[in-house]
Amino acid sequence: MTSSLCTTLLTLLLLLVCCSARRINLFPSLEHKYSKQPLQTSRPYNLAHRGSNGEFPEETAPAYLRSIKEGADFIETDILSSKDGVLICFHDVILDATTDIAEHKEFADRKRTYDVQGYIVTGFFTVDFTWKELQTLRVKQRFSFRDQQYNGKFPIIKFEDYISIALNASRVVGIYPEIKDPIFINKHVKWSNGKKFEDVFMDTLKNHGYKGSYMSKAWLKQPCFIQSFAPSSLVYVSNQTDLPNIFLIGGPTWRTEDTNQTFQEVTSDAYFDYIKNYVVGIGLWKDAIVPAVNNHLQPPTDLVVRAHAHDLQVHPYTFRNENQYLHFEFHQDPYIEFDFWVNKMRVDGLFTDFTGSLHNFQKWTSPISHDRLKNHD
Length: 377
Description:
Elements: H1 2-34, E1 45-48, H2 61-69, E2 74-81, E3 87-89, E4 112-116, E5 119-123, H3 131-134, H4 159-167, E6 174-179, H5 182-188, H6 197-207, H7 217-221, E7 226-228, H8 231-238, E8 245-249, H9 263-266, H10 269-275, E9 281-284, H11 286-289, E10 292-293, E11 296-297, H12 303-309, E12 313-314, H13 334-344, E13 349-352, H14 355-365, H15 367-376
Helix pairs in contact: 2-4
């Protein structure tokens, strides 16, 4: 009877161990399924400029999905509006260059001429089409020297679609939306309750859970940089959110669209002291940081050093693999250009049309990668 009791107890113990073992193995699988790999913050950010638009038409779902697959830390977009106030991902205020609008004879009478940031522009403007009408258009590649096989296959997407792409990624992927041409949009589109373009933009982010100051727990869960060339828009939204803002700056002859300030004014130490109260960084055209003459690099300016002295990040734009965008000193090699900007200029993020190339560069030059190779050898 004692032997029988021992056998019974041993059997029960084994069953408990086995069941316990199953539960112990189950929880990691659930954790793996529902926990995402966090955003990398140890090296300059790989910023997918309008998605992987070196391969797919810009600001389309496939361009964003491709850039995430290629290793982008953030996917960048430009936000405009339809006539009926739907926020869309689209770069130009006119549809002419990157859609098949010319093939839609039913819209032939929609061509207009407007003043856009002091320039008289004629074309088919997003603000003259409802969202339903915009959905009938298809996007095409902006540059003739890039792959044309996807022309006419993908639609314009909404701001909310773009957000969903980031949130549904298998790892944490940040978003980097731009408040695009706010002066023009607010002039031609009216929302209810007296809301402005910036208000609707912020409502969309809030409705999808975007909040938190830079590097906070909430921000790291759903990373977001808000960007704009209009400093007044950034000041305005900073009163609605603690999300980090980036002030975009053009070339030496550029002026702000809202305050009519010169490049020299907005890159002065005095202005950096002012704007750092509302932004965490600046995004500049890369040739404004390191000038080029006849495609040869000139001595770098002190813009990066001075910005860093004011605790401002620097995210230059735009890095493209094609020879016509590579200065002679880079020997037609984008990896040499990446090395220059990451290791010599010490920038904090890079806007690129080719996220896969930048990801490969950072992976191959990472100290972690070198350690793994040594251990493997």
